[in-house]
Amino acid sequence: MIKLAVALALSIATCTAGAESNSPTVSLLFAGDIVLDGQPGKVIEQGHDPFAAFSDIINSADIRVGNLECVIATVGDPEDKNYNFRAHPRTLPILKQHFDAVSIANNHSGDFGRPAFEEMLGLLDQSGIKRFGGGHNLSEAHTPLIIERNGLRIALLGYNEFMPRSFEADEHGAGTAWSEDEQVSADIHKARDVYKADLVIPVMHWGWENEPHSSARQQQLAHLMINAGADLIIGGHPHVTEEIEYYRGKLIVYSVGNFMIDALDNAAQMRGWVMHFTLDRNGVKSWSTSVAHIDDNGIPTPALQEKSPCGTRESTQIDMCTNGK
Question: How far apart are CA 143 and CA 77, in angstroms?
Answer without folding.
Answer: 28
